[in-house]
Amino acid sequence: MTFEYPVLVAVAVVVTVALFIVYFRMHRRRPAALRAGSALRRHLPQVMFLTAAALLLLAVARPAATLPVARAAGTVILAFDVSNSMKAEDVQPSRLAAAKSAATEFVAAQPDTVNIGIVAFDQGALTTQQPSDDHDATTAAIKRLQVNGGTSLGQAILASLTVVVGKPVSLPNEDTGEAAPDIGYFGNATIVVLSDGEDTGGPDALAAASLAAKAGVRIETVGVGTVEGATVEVEGYQVATSLNEDLLTQIAQTTAGNYHRAENAQALHDVYQSLDLRLTTERKPVELTGAAAAIAVLLLTIGGILMTTWFGRIL
Fold first, then answer.
1. Which ranges of 112-194 does DSSP label H, i.e. alpha helix?
2. Who's near 265: CB < 8 A, 6+ residues apart?
3. Rg of the chain over CA atoms, in angstroms?
4. Do 191 and 307 belong to one domain?
5. How confident is the model at residue 315 (pLDDT cuts 50, 70, 90)?
6. Rounded CA gap, 102 and 139, in Å?
7. Which long-range contacts (CB under 8 A, 24 or more apart) does 23-27 make?
8. What percentage of the chain reaches a pLDDT higher than 90?
9. Residues 228 and 146 in one domain
């Protein structure tokens, strides 16, 4: 523990000792009738008052301690599926529009200790916003998202890992027996994949998820759409599209993450509220002045109640 004004600590000790000495001397001079009864009843209220006085004197010295403080921190990558199927209207007003609306609220609710990045993916993937504590810029990036093309969940995960790691990340070449790359460990990073789960090609999504798990990156998947599905028009053709929960669940479970179903706009908003972000602890100085003063006031209050209850007045 440290004190901003350490000299006042010595003053507090001297004054407190002096007060206790004066109190016990005065107590011995009281008539025998006032000194009768149990020691607890005779001394407890006064000791509370004296202890409160000592705490108030210490509070003036501005005490502080370095304590472990839990906080939401780290990096969150919101990976949006912007494929043509995301314009389906089984979630109103559309899958992508509902996802964007809920994501905007999610970003606004995060503290500035959380850096948020945006990845948009169809058959490829594009980083539209680097992780940043500038949540206004992140929100603007979300609002610019538009539907286009097919879906590659594997590419979405690799692109998100690239943002987290800070260098290109790819799967090993299985034909050559290449080992999975060691990309480091990023235990404070979370990837949130928002998709209907229809994977139309690209890198193996589960292999990419395994690479994320090896790096300590958890993936939370959000299924946007309904199992019954809907139809969308793509280049003049009517195409049926439905939610693929199995793949999204497997991706999340590979990294010890969770799958969340969002079949309507309200459910999607609720999902964002329940996302389990990483909590980290850091040791930081915490001022204890308020705590010391609060305890002193509590002791004064209890001491006063005991005095009036036992003796009918403040002695």
1. 135-143, 153-165
2. 91, 92, 98, 101, 102
3. 31
4. no
5. low
6. 11
7. 23/50
8. 34
9. yes
Burial class (CB in 10 A: 0-12, 13-18, 19+), 171: middle
Chain centre to alpha carbon of residue 70: 9
Same structural domain, 162 and 238: yes
Cβ–Cβ < 8 Å for 175, 144: no
CATH number at residue 267: 3.40.50.410
43 alpha-carbon distance from chain centroid = 47
Range 142-161 average pLDDT: 92
Quickly state the pLDDT bin for 151 (edges 50, 70, 90).
confident
pLDDT of residue 259: 92
**149 and 110 share one domain:** yes
Q: Which helix (H) or strand (E) holds 239?
A: strand 237-241
Same domain, 29 and 103: no
CA distance 311 to 315: 8
Is 35 in the same domain as 90? Answer: no
What range defines the domain where residue 142 resides? 74-277
Report the alpha-carbon distance of residue 294 to residue 297 in Å, rounded: 5
Distance CA 221, CA 57 (A): 54
Write the CB contacts of 255 (distance below 8 Å, at least 6 apart in sequence).
209, 212, 213, 217, 218, 219
Q: What is the mean pLDDT of residues 193-208?
A: 90
Q: Which helix (H) or strand (E) holds 220?
A: strand 218-224
- Number of Cβ atoms within 10 Å of the Cβ of 71: 13
Same domain, 131 and 218: yes
Phi, psi of 263 (to 5 degrees): -85, -10
Beta bridge pairs of residue 240: 231
User: For the chain, what is the domain count?
Assistant: 2
Pairing of strands 74-81, 114-121: parallel
**219 vs 74 pLDDT, higher one:** 219
49 or 249, higher pLDDT: 249
196 and 107 assigned to the same domain: yes
d(CA 270, CA 150) in angstroms, rounded, equals: 27
